[in-house]
Design goal:
With about 425 residues, this protein is α/β, with parallel strands linked by helices. Helices cover about 40% and strands about 15% of the residues. Strand 11, helix 8 and strand 12 form a beta-alpha-beta unit.
Length: about 425
C-alpha cells in the first residue's frame, strides 16, 4: 500500500503552486492511492465546501491542517510506503519533523519558486532530512546544487494533469492582433509593466492601433498597471480583467518561471505564444522545442515590437500546431510513473540529527512562522474572507484602505500572541 501526503501553503487560493498541488491530488487519486493534503493557512468548513464544489477531485481527499504534523506519534511499522511532498520552500523545515516520526518515509521537496526569488532565510534550512528534491530543469538543478550544496535532486516538470489538449484539426488558425497576459499581478516576478510598455511602443510610436492587449489575473500590483495605461493613453487598447476575444496570442514577459502554466495552457488550446526567455533562461529551457512558441530574447522594445508584429501577422500552420500538441502530450503523460522512477534512485536517503529530536517541533514551528506568520486566522479575517465571496461586496472589500486596516489589525493581534 502507498500513502501520499502533500504539504502546501494554501490550496484555497489561486496560483501556480495551487494548480500543481491539485494536479498531484488528481494524478495519485486517479491511480487509487490514499491521498492526504495538509494546508498551512487556516480554513474552515465553508472553505472546504467551496473547494469541493470548484475542484471535484478534492471531494474524496482528506484535507487537514499542517498543525497536525507537529503532534504525530511514530508510525507503526507496516507494509505501507509513505511519500511526503512539501510543495513550498518556506515549509521545507517541516522535513525534520516528518523524518522524526517517519524514519523510512520518502520525503520530497518541490522547488516551485525561481531561485532568484528565494527567501534569504532559506540558506539556513537543513535539507538533510529530505530523501530528494524535485526541480524543473537541468539548469535549476545545477544552480541549486552549487548554491545550497545539496545534490539529491531529480528533474521533472510539474504535473500538467489539468490540461485538455486540443485536436489540431478542429482549431481555428487565423492570425490575430489580440495579445493576452494571464498572470499574477506581481511585478517582481511577472514584469507585466514591460508588456504594457511594449503595447505602448507599438501603438504610439509605430502607429499600429489594431493591436489590443488584455491583462487578466489578480494580485497587489493592479493599481500600478492602471496608472501606466492612463499614462500611455491606452484605455482603448489595453484592458485589465475584461472579457477576452476568442482568438489571441498568449504573451509572457515574466522575469522568471520554473515552468509557466499560462504558456502550457495556451499551447494546449492551440494558441500561439510569444514569451520572454527568462532572466535565467528557464522558460526557454522548458519550451524551446515547441514550434508555437516565439521568443523575446533581450527585452529590447524596438526589437521585441517587430517580433510581436511578425507573430501577429502569421497564421498558425497545422504542422506546427500538431507538433506542439505532441510535445505537450509527451510532457503531460506518465507523471506518476516518472516520479516513482526518479525518487527510487534516492530511496533510503534522508537523516536527522539525533540531538535535535527533543525540541524539533517547537524549533521548526518558530522557523516557519518567522517567515510565513502564524497559520491561524483571527475572527475578523475569517469574516472578511467569506464576505469577499459575495459578488456585490467583493469590490468594496478589496479597497486598499480596508485592506491596510486589516493588515494593521493582524499585526497587532500577532504581537499579543
Amino acid at each position: 500500500m502507498i500513502k501520499i501526503s502533500i504539504v502546501g501553503y494554501n490550496i484555497f487560493s489561486p496560483g501556480g503552486t495551487t494548480r500543481s498541488n491539485l494536479n498531484l491530488i488528481s494524478e495519485f487519486s486517479s491511480q487509487n492511492y490514499t491521498v492526504v493534503y495538509y494546508n498551512y493557512t487556516d480554513f474552515d468548513e465553508f472553505d472546504l465546501r467551496r473547494l469541493h464544489k470548484r475542484e471535484k477531485v478534492t471531494a474524496d481527499v482528506q484535507i487537514k491542517k499542517v498543525e497536525e504534523l507537529y503532534s504525530k506519534t511514530t508510525a507503526k511499522q507496516n507494509d505501507a510506503k509513505n511519500y511526503f511532498f512539501i510543495t513550498r520552500e518556506d515549509l521545507f523545515p517541516l522535513a525534520a519533523v516528518l523524518r522524526k516520526y517517519n524514519l523510512k518515509a520518502l520525503i520530497i521537496g518541490e522547488v516551485h519558486t525561481p531561485l532568484s526569488l528565494f527567501n534569504k532565510d532559506f540558506a539556513s534550512v537543513d535539507l538533510s532530512p529530505f530523501t530528494c528534491l524535485r526541480v524543473a530543469t537541468p539548469a535549476i538543478k545545477k544552480r541549486f546544487a552549487q548554491k545550497y550544496h545539496f545534490d539529491r535532486i531529480y528533474i521533472q516538470t510539474v504535473s500538467l494533469d489539468h490540461l485538455r489538449l486540443c485536436d489540431p484539426a478542429q482549431v481555428q488558425r487565423n492570425k490575430t492582433s489580440n495579445f493576452l497576459v494571464y498572470a499574477r499581478f506581481d511585478e517582481k516576478a511577472k514584469d507585466i509593466s514591460y508588456a504594457i510598455k511594449l503595447a505602448a511602443y507599438i501603438i504610439n510610436e509605430l502607429k499600429r492601433d489594431n493591436i489590443k492587449l488584455y491583462i487578466n489575473g489578480y494580485g497587489p500590483d493592479k493599481h500600478c498597471y492602471e496608472k501606466m495605461i492612463a499614462q500611455y493613453r491606452l484605455k482603448d487598447a489595453v484592458f485589465i480583467n475584461k472579457k477576452v476575444p476568442s482568438n489571441y496570442i498568449a504573451l509572457s514577459t515574466s522575469h522568471v518561471e520554473t515552468l509557466g502554466y499560462a504558456i502550457a495552457e495556451s499551447l494546449a488550446q492551440g494558441r500561439r505564444v510569444l514569451a520572454y526567455v527568462g532572466d535565467d533562461h528557464v522558460t526557454y529551457e522548458n519550451f524551446k522545442e515547441v514550434p508555437l512558441v516565439s521568443w523575446l530574447y533581450k527585452k529590447d522594445i524596438a526589437i521585441d515590437a517587430q517580433q510581436a508584429l511578425r507573430v501577429a501577422s502569421e497564421n498558425i500552420k497545422v504542422e506546427e500546431l500538431a507538433a506542439s500538441i505532441r510535445l505537450l502530450k509527451k510532457m503531460k503523460t506518465g507523471y506518476v510513473k516518472k516520479m516513482f522512477q526518479n525518487v527510487s534512485f534516492f530511496e533510503g536517503e534522508g537523516t536527522i540529527v539525533v540531538d535535535e529530536n527533543k525540541n524539533i517541533e517547537s524549533k521548526t514551528k518558530r522557523q516557519i512562522e518567522s517567515v510565513l506568520g502564524a497559520a491561524y486566522a483571527p475572527w475578523y479575517l475569517k469574516i472578511y474572507r467569506h464576505l469577499r465571496q459575495v459578488p456585490g461586496l467583493r469590490k468594496l472589500l478589496q479597497q486598499s484602505k480596508l485592506s491596510e486596516w486589516l493588515r494593521i489589525l493582524r499585526k497587532k493581534d500577532d504581537k499579543r500572541k
